[in-house]
Structure formats: C-alpha cells, structure tokens
C-alpha cells in the first residue's frame, strides 16, 4: 500500500451500520509512500495510522484540468 500527501485513507466499517471513516493523508512517515501515515479525519481528529486489510487508499486526482 502506497500513498502520497493529499490522498484519502478510508477505513471501512467493520460491523453492519458502522460508517466508513474518511481522512486525508497529511504526512507520509514511511519510505517510498509506505505506512505509517499521519491522517486528519473529517471530524478534525489527527492520528498516525498503519492501515490494515479493512482500509483503502483513494489517490488524489492528478489529471490537469
């Protein structure tokens, strides 16, 4: 799993009715885009995450427009 600053980290809900938790990667702490990542979530909380199998990286759009 590789990411860059500005990508979204999505932690999928683990049980029925639990919403996904979405945050923006504000710092990549690993080498060459690898975890851990410093993430700022929608509620303003910021933390360091090492994503597990229930996590997805959504890369920011790099298409000029």
Structural write-up:
- With 65 residues, the chain is mainly beta.
- It is built from no helices and five strands.
- It has one domain (8-58).
- 0% of the residues lie in helices and 38% in strands.
- It has strands spanning 8-11, 21-28, 37-41, 46-49, 55-58.
- The model has no long low-confidence stretch (mean pLDDT 90).
- The chain has a five-stranded antiparallel sheet with strand order 4-3-2-1-5, with no helix packed on it.
- It is globular, with a radius of gyration of 12 Å.
Strand content: 35-45%
Rounded to the nearest angstrom, the radius of gyration is: 12 Å
Largest sheet: 5 strands, antiparallel
- Portion of residues within helices: under 10%
This entry's quaternary arrangement is: single chain
Structural class: mainly beta
Mean pLDDT: 90
Number of helices: 0
Which strands sit side by side, in order, in the main sheet?
Answer: 4-3-2-1-5
Contiguous uncertain segments of 5+ residues: none
N-end to C-end Cα span: 27 Å
| Shape call | globular
Number of strands: 5
Summed up, the domain count is 1
Q: What's the order of the H and E elements? A: EEEEE
Region (Disordered): 36-65
Protein name: DUF1918 domain-containing protein
Biased composition (Basic and acidic residues): 55-65
Domain DUF1918: 1-57
Please give a quick description of this structure.
This protein has 65 residues and is mainly β.
SSE layout:
Layout: E1 8-11, E2 21-28, E3 37-41, E4 46-49, E5 55-58
Antiparallel strand pairs: 1-2, 1-5, 2-3, 3-4
């Amino acid at each position: 799993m590789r990411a860059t600053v500005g990508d979204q980290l999505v932690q999928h809900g683990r049980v029925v009715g639990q919403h996904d938790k979405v945050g923006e990667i504000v710092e990549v702490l690993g080498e060459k885009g690898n975890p851990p990542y410093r993430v700022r979530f929608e509620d303003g909380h910021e933390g360091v995450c090492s994503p597990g199998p229930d996590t997805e990286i959504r890369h920011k759009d790099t298409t000029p427009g």
